[in-house]
Design brief:
Layout (H helix, E strand, L loop, with lengths): L1 H26 L6 H26 L8 E6 L1 H7 L6 H13 L4 E4 L12 H7 L13 H11 L4 E5 L4 E2 L14 H4 L13 E3 L13 E2 L7 H6 L2 E4 L12 E2 L2 E4 L2 E4 L1 H10 L3 E5 L5 E6 L14 E2 L11 E3 H5 L4 E4 L5 E4 H5 L3 E6 L17
Parallel strand pairs: 1-14, 1-17, 2-3, 2-17, 3-7, 5-11
Antiparallel strand pairs: 4-6, 8-13, 9-10, 11-12, 15-16
Length: 373
C-alpha cells in the first residue's frame, strides 16, 4: 500500500512540475513543439485561469490607489446626442470640460481615423465661391477639435490600434510579416515620436525575431490630430484560451520601434516620467521601468503583464458623457449605486478615460470577477 501511495505522489509531483514548466515556457514564448504550444499550453492556461478567477473572487474587491474616472459614451448619452462617433466639436467640448475641472490626464479609448465631414465635399466646393464662403470654417469640426488637442496636448493621450498584430518570434513569416515595405509605407508620418526613447535591444535588430506583440499597419488618428498631439498609446486586448482577459500588453512593436499602451502612456504622463526598456540578445524583455521613480513594471519575457483586478465592473466611477456635457453643477453618476459630485470634486487630479460602453458600440469582454462587461 505504501508503494502505491508513494508512486501516486511521485506521479502527481511529476505532472504538476511538467505542467508548471510547460506553462512557464509557453508564457515566455519558448515552446517549439506544436502539440505543446497548441494543445497542452492552452489547456494549462485555462486550468490555471479558472483557479485565478476563484482566487480573485475569494479575495474580493480592493480600493484603487489612484483616482481613476471613466467617462462613458453610454446608451443614455447616445440616445440624447445620436450615434457614435459624435461631431468633433462635441468631443472637443467634452475634453475641455474634463481638463478644465482639474483632470491630471485624459485618455481616449477610441480612434478618430476618418475626417468628420459635416458638409459634403461637392457642396463645400460650390460654397467656397459663394457669399457663404466665410462661414464654412464654422462647420469644420475637425479643425476645432485639432485646436482642443493642441491646447491640452500636455494632458491628452490619444488612442490607436491595429488589425494586423502578431508575435513574429512565434509565427512563420507568411503568418506574421512585420517588415513588408508596402505595409511600412502606410505608417503615419512621424509616428515614431510616440515611441519609447530609452530602449536597449539586440544589435543588429531583426523585427521578425521580436517576442513582443508587433503590428504591421496602424489604425491611427487622422493626420491633423497626429501632428498636434504629444502623447498616444495603443489599446488592444487579448484573451486566454478560455476567452477570459487576465493579461495586458503594455508595450507593442512596429517597424523596430516600441510603443506604450494607452494605459501605460497615461500613467507616464501623469507621473511626469519616462520609460526604459531593455531586451537581451534572445529578444527577451529583461527590464521595463519608469526612469525617474525606478518603478519596475512586472512584465514577462514576452512583454505581457498579469492584471491585478481591483474588483468587478464599475469599481471605478462611471460618469455618462451627457452628464459632463450638461449645464448641471452637480453631476449624478453610478451604475450599481447613485452618487453625486461637482465636476471639480470628481475630476480633480484624476486619470480620466473616455470610452464607449453602449451596447452595439463596443465589444463585450469576459473578466475574472464577472462576464460580458
Amino acid at each position: 500500500m505504501k508503494k502505491v501511495f508513494w508512486a501516486l505522489q511521485i506521479l502527481i509531483i511529476t505532472v504538476c512540475t511538467s505542467g508548471y514548466f510547460v506553462t512557464k515556457q509557453g508564457d515566455e514564448g519558448n515552446l517549439t513543439s506544436s502539440f505543446l504550444k497548441n494543445k497542452i499550453y492552452p489547456f494549462l492556461i485555462t486550468a490555471d485561469g479558472g483557479y485565478t478567477n476563484v482566487k480573485f473572487k475569494m479575495r474580493g474587491p480592493r480600493e484603487p490607489n489612484a483616482k481613476i474616472v471613466i467617462v462613458a459614451i453610454d446608451d443614455e448619452s447616445i440616445e440624447k446626442l445620436g450615434r457614435w462617433p459624435w461631431s468633433r466639436d462635441i468631443v472637443g467640448f467634452l475634453t475641455h470640460q474634463i481638463i478644465q475641472s482639474g483632470a491630471k490626464v485624459v485618455g481616449f479609448d477610441a480612434v478618430f481615423s476618418e475626417a468628420k465631414e459635416v458638409i459634403p465635399e461637392d457642396l463645400k466646393k460650390k460654397l467656397a465661391h459663394s457669399q457663404f464662403a466665410s462661414e464654412l470654417a464654422e462647420y469644420d469640426t475637425d479643425a476645432r477639435f485639432t485646436e482642443v488637442i493642441q491646447k491640452y496636448a500636455d494632458k491628452l493621450v490619444l488612442g490607436w490600434a491595429s488589425e494586423t498584430n502578431c508575435r513574429p518570434h512565434e509565427n512563420l513569416i507568411d503568418q506574421c510579416n512585420v517588415t513588408d515595405p508596402n505595409d511600412i509605407k502606410t505608417h503615419p508620418p512621424g509616428f515614431d515620436r510616440y515611441s519609447i526613447k530609452s530602449v536597449i535591444k539586440p544589435e543588429p535588430f531583426d523585427p521578425q525575431q521580436s517576442r513582443l506583440v508587433s503590428v504591421a499597419t496602424f489604425l491611427s488618428n487622422i493626420q491633423p490630430f497626429n501632428e498636434v498631439s504629444k502623447h498616444q498609446g495603443a489599446f488592444m486586448t487579448y484573451s486566454d484560451a478560455d476567452g477570459f482577459i487576465r493579461r495586458a500588453t503594455p508595450i507593442y512593436m512596429a517597424n523596430g520601434n516600441v510603443y506604450p499602451s494607452l494605459a501605460l502612456e497615461m500613467a507616464r504622463v501623469g507621473l511626469k516620467d519616462d520609460l526604459h526598456l531593455a531586451m537581451d540578445d534572445n529578444y527577451h524583455v529583461h527590464d521595463l521601468r519608469f526612469i525617474k521613480s525606478r518603478k519596475v513594471i512586472p512584465v514577462n519575457n514576452r512583454g505581457d503583464l498579469k492584471i491585478n483586478f481591483l474588483g468587478p465592473s464599475y469599481s471605478f466611477p462611471y460618469v455618462p458623457a451627457i452628464a459632463v456635457l450638461s449645464e448641471d453643477k452637480i453631476l449624478k453618476y453610478g451604475r450599481t449605486q447613485e452618487f453625486s459630485a461637482t465636476r471639480q470634486d470628481l475630476f480633480k487630479d484624476a486619470y480620466v478615460l473616455i470610452g464607449a460602453s453602449a451596447i452595439g458600440v463596443y465589444d463585450m469582454r469576459v473578466f475574472p470577477f464577472d462576464e460580458n462587461t
